[in-house]
């Protein structure tokens, strides 16, 4: 089994607002192995983006703050690392791409300037090699006319091309971990297919581990090897992608999978999870999913289940022997 | 970029025509007969008739307007009633004095205002931010004449550090080459003279710079806050760039577009609105020139003064528009 | 067969782009370029396509929120493009729209009750107390409680806001509802609730839907018939069963194969299309899809294919089926 490159242990991140502390991420644990693609799935507000910003040390602070746990990169805890240390890691060891390709590039700088920025920061490279490297990167992400593109501005590119540029920027220093936060959500389905294809290819060729954050279970099923399912700031299930999709243990995971309309056949009515995601911190006692759960038991309302299991873990009393 | 510049240049034509029409109209807006006004109440009807003819005031208005335009284009701005000198020759030293003062004041306003705004935004909600913004609020609300008098009282009368009046010490002169004394003294290599010119500039420039500094600081802060929240700044952070460079290199260029608008507007206002500062500090600029002309009812001078100020205003705006295009690559598509 | 409720013929919308020194029209964006379809009473027509294909513009033209450049729109047999302003206002009562962004389409300063009441006031329906009663009914109908009427939109979640949007559309008892990406801003678990609600309401009130979306699975679920658009044109239109199970147009095939299937054991060979959708200002000559089409032939670059009936009775616009 490959070693873990990044481990998140009992991470807790809160936002301190006028209404008090809001626990956005409430004790999550998972690890990323070298060269794998890990899916981090959940609906809006489940804390998946806060997790990624916590790893990058890019939480808007104030109000956001890591209040507990560890983030181990190659064994080093970076959860409270100095800004100067984080700057060395960011873009170099851990890179990130974001959901909005249209706004994630600076409109008043050329593609070339933005593409070479991280290399100039982290690698000592003679100026003449810089352009060649930039051209290589653009070719690697499948962009035509690489040399001319360097002199163009973001507004001259389509959304799909901009996301390719973002990927090229992220890959520019050969990072060990790439965090992709909803990288295809803003893109059309045919362009999404291109980008996912590209990410899978880069993962194979460069062995960069990818944390793919998404709400789209289809994307997860097609690209990821392992999956972490989050709900209301907690991990509710994690395991191998096949196990999760074929034998979901947590009722939330099961509900999510069953709510998706099928492309291949038509059902009369869709399965639904009743209600909506609770506000962070609003449920004080018991399982956070209990108010929406179709299998809810008395116990669920009073005690909170632990995340248990070996390779396939879940946070539910249904799968606990003592239940 | 080129087609954008040409487009902007073409758009200047109607503006300039409108401007001359309005300034031309001023002489017609004066109650009564201009010749009568110029010659005073004791003038004979013959003298008035002769002056009317000399000024071409017996012609229809459009002929008069075209004569006026022709004169402007040939550099003839008329003659001052006070001293019978051609205004075109007289106006430049005054204009230069104003440009020098405004330029120095604008440099102060831009350097202080932008930095104060950036630091405020960067350290949002800190003590630094609050004090900078309170100062900016005071700056905007401070009447110039009061600030000017306060400066004079403190730095000239009480502390005797800086001169309070004029461009030069009374006993000294500078040989006018460009009439921009900072440049003239440097060309001549007279560094003590240069220093004197600088000392004379300090107080009026600060007084003139106060309001623009405050406005620029506030605009920079809000624009910068907006940019610092943007996705592309997050991208830059994710590359491991340090905050200082992010703010001054990457964010400032984006934040600069609204700031530039304010700078352009304030520069224009400064050139025309320096009259208060110039009066208080006895600064022989165009404001004081026009102010004196108003006291003597020297209409040709007033007219030309307004024309020149308006022209400068239009040109400043034109340059601002071109700078937009340089900063923002998307602008040519608008 | 009876008269369709809505029939659209040769609908076009060209947007001029002004440029150059004198603001002359330098190019024309052909947002919608000759679209024809019909919708029967009680059925749902899905319109799918990627961004910029003209599906939203088509939906808006069908209720004359955007004036078409050319074409005809028949609602219950009469050409609504020829209606006077007041006649059009009366017709609008029968055609309502649901928008994508439940956040932006609700006035933040109005109570939910007032928002739902508004269209009834516009169309002079009932008196004040009757309208209040109807607001309460509508809120219950879309699965909210009547006491929500006094609250403001920001107090609701995305799914609830979309329910409010639906209640507002239903207020005037429309016959046709044009839903433009009604569930794409919602989370999966909430999305299925809203989809079920829409189907439920359709059965109860015999509503007719035009359902515009980019999510192919959602469209299949809700639609009886589906039109696939590409660059302002319909490339294929048929009943959803056949379209999804046996797509004929190469674009439909690629589109369907690009959808990530939520099943790790079903990794079918995806058709990965090259490049981006061309700009509607410069569509390629001939078939608009030919420069990305994996099976393009010589003729495709030259001749524009027309929408024709194929052997099994569906409409496809492709030279492969000439």
Explain the overall architecture.
The complex is a heterotrimer of chains A (323), B (334) and C (322). With 323 residues, chain A is α/β, with parallel strands linked by helices. Chain A folds into 2 domains: 4-93 and 175-319, P-loop containing nucleotide triphosphate hydrolases (Rossmann fold, 3-Layer(aba) Sandwich), CATH 3.40.50; 101-174, no CATH class. Helix content of chain A is 32%, strand content 23%. Chain A is built from 11 helices and 11 strands. A 7-stranded mixed β-sheet of chain A has the order 6-7-8-3-9-10-11, sandwiched between helices. A 4-stranded antiparallel β-sheet of chain A has the order 2-1-4-5. In chain A, strand 4 (64-73) and strand 5 form a beta hairpin. The longest helix of chain A is centred in the middle third of the chain and has 18 residues, at 189-206. Chain A is globular. The mean pLDDT of chain A is 88. With 334 residues, chain B is mainly α. Chain B folds into 3 domains: 1-30 and 285-334, no CATH class; 36-74, no CATH class; 101-284, MetI-like fold (Orthogonal Bundle). Chain B is 76% helix and 0% strand. Chain B is built from 14 helices and no strands. Chain B has helices at residues 2-29, 34-39, 45-55, 61-73, 87-122, 127-141, 144-158, 181-188, 191-228, 231-238, 243-273, 275-280, 286-295, 299-327. The longest helix of chain B has 38 residues, at 191-228. Chain B is globular, with a radius of gyration of 24 Å. In chain B, 34% of the residues are buried. Chain C is an alpha/beta fold and 322 residues long. Chain C has a domain at 6-94 and 174-244: Rossmann fold, CATH 3.40.50.300. At the A-C interface, helix 7, helix 8, helix 9 and helix 10 of A face helix 5, helix 6, helix 7, helix 8 and helix 9 of C.
**Percent of residues in beta strands of chain C:** 15-25%
CATH class bucket of one domain in chain C: Alpha Beta
Instruction: Note the gap between the termini of chain C.
Output: 27 Å
* Spans where pLDDT lies below 50 across 5 or more residues of chain A: none
Helix run count of chain C: 9
**What's the quaternary structure here?**
heterotrimer
Largest interface chains and counts: A-C, 46 and 46 residues
**Biggest sheet of chain C, open or closed, and with what strands and sense?**
8 strands, mixed
Going by CATH, the architecture of one domain in chain C would be 3-Layer(aba) Sandwich
Over all CA atoms, what is the radius of gyration of chain C? 21 Å
**Helical residue percent band of chain A:** 25-40%
- Structural category of chain C: alpha/beta
How much of the sequence of chain A is in beta strands?
A: 15-25%
CATH 4th-level superfamily of the largest domain in chain A: P-loop containing nucleotide triphosphate hydrolases
pLDDT below 50 for ≥5 consecutive residues: which ranges of chain C? none
Query: Number of helical runs of chain A?
Result: 11
Shape of chain C: globular
Strand order of the largest sheet of chain A: 6-7-8-3-9-10-11
User: What is the end-to-end distance of chain A?
Assistant: 32 Å
General shape of chain A: globular
């Amino acid at each position: 089994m490959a070693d873990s490159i990044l481990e998140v242990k009992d991470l807790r991140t809160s936002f301190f607002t006028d209404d008090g502390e809001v626990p956005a991420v409430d004790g999550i644990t998972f690890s990323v192995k070298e060269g794998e693609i890990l899916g981090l799935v959940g609906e809006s507000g489940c804390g998946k983006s806060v997790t990624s910003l916590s790893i990058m040390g890019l939480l808007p602070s104030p109000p956001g703050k890591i209040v507990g746990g560890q983030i181990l990169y190659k064994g080093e805890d970076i959860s409270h690392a100095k800004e100067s240390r984080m700057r060395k890691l960011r873009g170099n060891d851990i890179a990130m791409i974001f959901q909005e390709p249209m706004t994630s590039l600076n409109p008043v700088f050329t593609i070339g300037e933005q593409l070479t920025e991280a290399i100039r920061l982290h690698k000592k490279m003679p100026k003449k090699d810089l352009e060649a490297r930039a051209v290589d990167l653009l070719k690697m992400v499948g962009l035509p006319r690489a040399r001319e593109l360097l002199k163009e501005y973001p507004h001259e590119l389509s959304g799909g091309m901009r996301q390719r540029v973002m990927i090229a920027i992220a890959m520019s220093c050969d990072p060990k971990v790439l965090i992709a936060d909803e990288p295809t959500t803003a893109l059309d389905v045919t362009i999404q297919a291109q980008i996912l294809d590209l990410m899978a290819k880069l993962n194979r060729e460069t062995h960069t581990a990818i944390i793919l954050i998404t709400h789209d279970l289809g994307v997860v099923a097609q690209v990821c090897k392992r999956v972490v399912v989050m709900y209301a700031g907690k991990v509710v299930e994690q395991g191998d992608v096949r196990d999760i999709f074929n034998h979901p243990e947590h009722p939330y995971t099961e509900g999510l999978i069953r709510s998706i309309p099928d492309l291949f056949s038509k059902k009369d009515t869709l399965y639904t999870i009743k209600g909506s995601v609770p506000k962070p911190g609003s449920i004080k006692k018991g399982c956070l999913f209990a108010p929406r759960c179709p299998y809810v038991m008395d116990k669920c309302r009073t005690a909170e289940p632990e995340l248990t299991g070996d390779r396939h873990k879940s946070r539910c009393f249904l799968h606990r022997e003592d239940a | 970029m080129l087609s954008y510049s040409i487009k902007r240049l073409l758009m200047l034509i109607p503006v300039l025509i409108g401007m001359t029409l309005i300034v031309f109209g001023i002489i017609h807006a004066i109650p009564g007969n201009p010749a009568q006004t110029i010659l005073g109440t004791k003038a004979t009807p013959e003298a008035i008739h002769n002056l009317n003819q000399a000024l071409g005031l017996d012609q229809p208005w459009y002929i008069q307007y075209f004569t006026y335009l022709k004169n402007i284009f040939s550099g003839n701005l008329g003659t001052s009633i006070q001293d019978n000198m051609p205004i075109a020759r007289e106006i430049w030293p005054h204009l230069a004095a104003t440009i020098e003062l405004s330029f120095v004041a604008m440099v102060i306003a831009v350097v202080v205002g932008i930095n104060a705004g950036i630091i405020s935004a960067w350290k949002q909600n800190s003590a630094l931010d609050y004090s900078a913004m309170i100062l900016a609020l005071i700056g905007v609300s401070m009447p110039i004449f009061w600030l000017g008098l306060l400066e004079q009282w403190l730095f000239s009368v009480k502390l005797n550090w800086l001169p309070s009046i004029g461009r030069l010490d009374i006993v000294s002169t500078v040989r006018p080459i460009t009439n921009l004394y900072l440049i003239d003294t440097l060309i001549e290599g007279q560094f003590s003279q240069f220093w004197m010119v600088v000392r004379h500039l300090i107080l009026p420039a600060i007084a003139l710079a106060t309001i623009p500094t405050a406005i620029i600081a506030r605009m920079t802060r809000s624009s910068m806050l907006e940019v610092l929240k943007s996705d592309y700044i997050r991208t830059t952070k994710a590359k491991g760039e340090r905050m200082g460079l992010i703010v001054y290199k990457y964010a400032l260029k984006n934040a600069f577009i609204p700031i530039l608008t304010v700078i352009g507007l304030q520069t224009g206002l400064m050139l025309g609105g320096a009259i208060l500062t110039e009066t208080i500090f006895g600064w022989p600029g165009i404001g004081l020139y026009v102010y004196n002309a108003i006291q003597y009812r020297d209409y040709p001078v007033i007219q030309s003064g307004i024309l020149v100020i308006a022209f400068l205003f239009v040109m400043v705006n034109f340059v601002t528009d071109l700078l937009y295009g340089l900063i923002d690559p998307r602008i040519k598509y608008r | 067969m009876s008269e369709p409720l809505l029939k659209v013929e040769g609908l076009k919308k060209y947007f001029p782009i002004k440029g150059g020194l004198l603001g002359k029209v330098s190019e024309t964006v052909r947002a919608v370029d000759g679209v024809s379809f019909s919708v029967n009473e009680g059925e749902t027509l899905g319109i799918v396509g990627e961004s910029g294909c003209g599906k939203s513009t088509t939906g808006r033209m069908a209720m004359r929120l955007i004036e078409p450049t050319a074409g005809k729109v028949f609602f219950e047999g009469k050409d609504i493009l020829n209606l006077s302003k007041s006649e059009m206002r009366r017709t609008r009562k029968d055609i309502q729209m649901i928008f994508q962004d439940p956040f932006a389409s609700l006035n933040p300063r109005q109570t939910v009750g007032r928002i739902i009441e508004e269209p009834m006031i516009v169309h002079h329906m009932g008196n004040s107390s009757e309208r209040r009663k109807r607001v309460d009914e509508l809120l219950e109908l879309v699965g909210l409680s009547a006491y929500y009427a006094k609250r403001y939109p920001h107090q609701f979640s995305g799914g609830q806001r979309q329910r409010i949007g639906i209640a507002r559309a239903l207020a005037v008892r429309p016959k046709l509802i044009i839903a433009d990406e009604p569930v794409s801003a919602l989370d999966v678990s909430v999305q299925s609730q809203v989809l079920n609600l829409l189907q439920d309401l359709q059965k109860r009130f015999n509503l007719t839907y035009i359902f515009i979306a980019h999510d192919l699975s959602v469209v299949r679920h809700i639609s009886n018939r589906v039109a696939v658009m590409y660059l302002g044109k319909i490339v294929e239109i048929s009943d959803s069963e056949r379209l999804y199970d046996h797509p004929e147009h190469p674009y439909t095939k690629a589109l369907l194969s690009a959808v990530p299937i939520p099943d790790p054991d079903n990794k079918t060979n995806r058709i990965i299309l090259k490049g981006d959708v061309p700009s509607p200002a410069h569509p390629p000559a001939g078939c608009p899809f030919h420069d990305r089409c994996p099976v393009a032939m010589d003729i495709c670059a030259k001749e524009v294919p027309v929408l024709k009936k194929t052997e099994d009775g569906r409409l496809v616009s492709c030279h492969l089926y000439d």
